[in-house]
Design goal:
The chain has 237 residues and is an alpha/beta fold. It is 46% helix and 14% strand. Helix 3 runs parallel beside helix 4 and helix 4 packs across helix 5. The structure holds adenosine-5'-diphosphate and magnesium ion.
Length: 237
């Protein structure tokens, strides 16, 4: 870490001074680690979409974000980049345990998010794990205790919270509720409430959703603290 300390200090200062009213035109305009910029470049991402332009700077500053943008607008990177950067800036390593939780509505969406995370995070030393069930519970239990960034479905996560010995969310820094409208449509409101009750309150939360329904707003009130609201409409990409 020593040689990265200078870079971290510089990025922290740039995040503090970041003017969120000036949207970045390229990812490289943002105060991001070289590791993340290399990951983005390797995956072929150069120009942020509108929801990324609006959401990422606020999240880099540490704000809670309530984001609304239709399917296909690029919400995944809008939260994955800040998740990785938050842990990197805290010099998070394997021994620090769980740093971020990303909750997805379905196994398929969790898997897709996990794949993007692995791609853009490949230059970092953070570990990522997929906790979606359908596999040997023992194997998942081994992994979830050692993973820095967990991408999961709500039911399976709650099961681990209840049943996995030595699994704790006490060190959690960042919570992401992705496709929140779909999570709620699938009937997971009570499951989410039970999960959130067991998370440290001193954390950053990002809630992204294609639509802003009444129940999404209820969930936002429960999970976010004084959030910035970012919404992108129309065919913006
Ligand atoms: P959403 O979650 O809003 O439905 P995704 O995050 O799944 O959208 O992104 C939709 C598609 O757009 C994906 O194929 C993704 O790779 C692509 N994409 C996202 N951000 C960018 C970007 N900045 N540049 C190019 N393609 C992008
Ligand atoms: Mg999505």
């Amino acid at each position: 870490w020593k040689k990265e300390d200078v870079e971290i200090k510089e990025i922290e200062a740039r995040c503090r001074d970041l003017d969120c009213s000036v949207p970045p035109s390229k990812f490289s305009d943002l105060p991001l680690s070289q590791r993340t910029l290399q990951g983005l470049q390797g995956a072929g991402y150069q120009i942020p979409t509108d929801i990324q332009r609006a959401g990422i700077p606020l999240s880099l500053k540490g704000c809670d974000v309530l984001g609304a943008a239709k399917t296909g607008s690029g919400k995944t990177l809008a939260f994955l980049i800040p998740v990785i950067e938050a842990l990197w800036r805290q010099r998070w390593t394997s021994v620090d345990g769980l740093g971020a939780l990303i909750i997805s509505p379905t196994r398929e969406l969790a898997y897709q998010t996990f794949e993007v995370l692995c791609k853009i995070g490949c230059k970092h030393d953070l570990s990522a794990g997929l906790i979606i069930g359908g596999k040997d519970l023992k194997h998942e239990q081994e992994r979830i205790r050692k993973t820095n960034i967990v991408v999961c479905t709500p039911g399976r996560l709650l099961q681990h919270m209840d049943e996995t010995p030595d699994f704790t969310c006490n060190s959690l820094q960042v919570l992401v509720l992705d496709e929140a409208d779909r999570i709620l449509d699938l009937g997971f409101a009570a499951t989410l409430n039970a999960i959130i009750e067991n998370l440290p309150e001193d954390r950053q939360t990002m809630l992204y959703s294609a639509t802003q329904t009444r129940s999404v707003q209820d969930l936002a009130r429960l999970s976010l603290q004084d959030p910035e609201y970012v919404a992108v409409h129309e065919n913006s990409r």
